[in-house]
């Protein structure tokens, strides 16, 4: 397997969170981020060993960081995580593993999680580096073991993308786990596996505002 580390460092200040994004992979990746409150985003091609620094406003919500893989040279078309442009202004297309965050929310807490609701393309370790909070990880051979119905070039799709039914998309009231969501949950217990995953399973984590984070992503065979 080709191993790489895709590192995000998140030092939080009063005015903005600064993300230093480093590509330690042996191949090119296309970093992407987006928030919904306010709507903002960006992206950049990172060759092996390159880094990229961005600032995101404190109080931003709906934040996602993800790695795009298998992209064209201009970043306008990718196998996984594609947003249709080099500098994303919205979320990417499944399959992609997501590091999600909202900054300085209730009681000045940050909320963060890892999600497989949009499928999986690379492993992620999302860990605070200050504040004494626990980190989370989703790193398993999900692509290699992906059920036949969910297989996609470069990744493993979520069942909602493939089948589009209320059972898998949770679009018609409450829904519970399925065999497909259990496939993800067994391999990544700290991550969301379907849209209404049980919050009692600690899929959302909190740290005090001002915490620093590292998010390390690497593809597995």
UniProtKB/TrEMBL annotation:
PROSITE patterns: THAUMATIN_2 (PS51367). One of its GO terms (cellular component) is cytoplasmic vesicle. Pfam families: Thaumatin. The keyword Signal applies. Keywords: Cytoplasmic vesicle, Disulfide bond, Signal, Taste-modifying protein. The keyword Disulfide bond applies. Belongs to the thaumatin family. Taste-modifying protein; intensely sweet-tasting. It is 100000 times sweeter than sucrose on a molar basis. This is Pathogenesis-related protein 5. The lineage of its organism: Eukaryota, Viridiplantae, Streptophyta, Embryophyta, Tracheophyta. The gene is PR5.
């Amino acid at each position: 397997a080709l191993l790489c580390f895709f590192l995000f460092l998140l030092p939080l200040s009063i005015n903005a969170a600064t993300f230093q994004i480093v590509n330690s992979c042996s191949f090119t990746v296309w970093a992407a981020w987006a928030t919904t409150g306010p709507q903002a985003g960006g992206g950049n091609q990172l060759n092996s060993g390159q880094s990229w620094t961005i600032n995101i406003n404190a109080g931003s919500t709906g934040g996602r960081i993800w790695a795009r893989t298998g992209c064209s040279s201009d970043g306008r078309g990718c196998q996984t995580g594609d947003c249709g442009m080099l500098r994303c202004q919205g979320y990417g297309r499944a399959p992609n593993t997501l590091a999600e965050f909202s900054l300085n929310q209730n009681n000045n807490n940050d909320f963060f999680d890892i999600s497989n609701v949009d499928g999986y393309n690379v492993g992620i370790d999302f860990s605070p580096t200050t504040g004494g909070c626990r980190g989370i990880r989703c790193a398993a051979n999900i692509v290699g073991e992906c059920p036949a119905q969910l297989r996609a070039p470069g990744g493993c799709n979520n069942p909602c993308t493939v089948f589009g039914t209320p059972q898998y998309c949770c679009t018609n009231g409450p829904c519970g786990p399925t065999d497909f969501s259990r496939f993800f949950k067994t391999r990544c217990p700290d991550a969301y596996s379907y849209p209404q995953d049980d919050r009692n399973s600690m899929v959302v984590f909190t740290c005090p505002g001002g915490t620093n984070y590292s998010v390390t992503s690497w593809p597995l065979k």
